[in-house]
């Protein structure tokens, strides 16, 4: 079965051009006019990736991504934000909302397709590794076998070293990140400013050698850094 991509944009021309190109590339494409409609389609169709505009009526792209990330089933769903807004602060808002990639308009459809392939390939690898690791642990007769399987991905020594390098505050931020909270929401719970939370997130990205929040969450869950 072809992978399903949800394209969200209130501009009909943009939706059609992206949809036609992706369908020709072999994907199954569903579309939505705004964030509210997109949320319904996410629950109904469980797409493999979302491509969404930011400025839309009823619900913008930032809020859409934030709402999607609040659902455990979609915390790792790849999301690409498309927008004509190119200011640094606006890009930061995009990443804070939980997107994997921020692609400014105008963009080349070929570039978008390449980004989609890359995100889908990584998502499939992570999912297959998780299923393999989970199956091996559940089916293991003894704890020793489960430990051996886990060591093939990440040794206990490496895990211990990484955990010891994280401050207690970084561990708190990492735990909240896996629940899909924004910087503002984490700041409210930890009594920190969103800017301070962003500094902790940047430190976590550096220490785990990951490139964005979604990758950081996948890394943490894969290696048992969070409950």
UniProtKB/TrEMBL annotation:
GO annotations of cellular component type: cytosol; protein-DNA complex
GO MF annotations, alphabetized: phosphorelay response regulator activity; transcription cis-regulatory region binding
GO process terms (BP): regulation of DNA-templated transcription
Domain HTH luxR-type per the UniProt entry, residue ranges: 159-224
Response regulatory domain residues: 4-120
InterPro entries assigned: CheY-like_superfamily, Sig_transdc_resp-reg_C-effctor, Sig_transdc_resp-reg_receiver, Tscrpt_reg_LuxR_C, WalR-like, WH-like_DNA-bd_sf
Keywords: DNA-binding, Phosphoprotein, Transcription, Transcription regulation
4-aspartylphosphate: residues carrying this PTM: 53
SMART domains linked: HTH_LUXR, REC
Protein name: DNA-binding response regulator
Organism: Nostoc minutum NIES-26
